[in-house]
Amino acid sequence: xxxxxxxxxxxxxxxxxxxxxxxxxxxxxxxxxxxxxxxxxxxxxxxxxxxxxxxxxxxxxxxxxxxxxxxxxxxxxxxxxx
Length: 82
Prior knowledge:
Elements: H1 6-16, E1 20-25, E2 31-36, H2 39-50, E3 79-81
Parallel strand pairs: 1-3
Antiparallel strand pairs: 1-2
């Protein structure tokens, strides 16, 4: 369940980790997070998404995180909310 500010929170954590990409709402209520950067930084973001939200003030509840790896896309800058 996405809480108000979830994409903003995700964007803030990704920028702190030096990642680029996006967080966007899907039509079925899920949120897609696409992140590019160093493997350790992506793993850190994934860990934050998996943690209990009350431990660090994340808005919303994450029921599942599915990690898919692929080739980095050229020209991606910043981390945006879509």
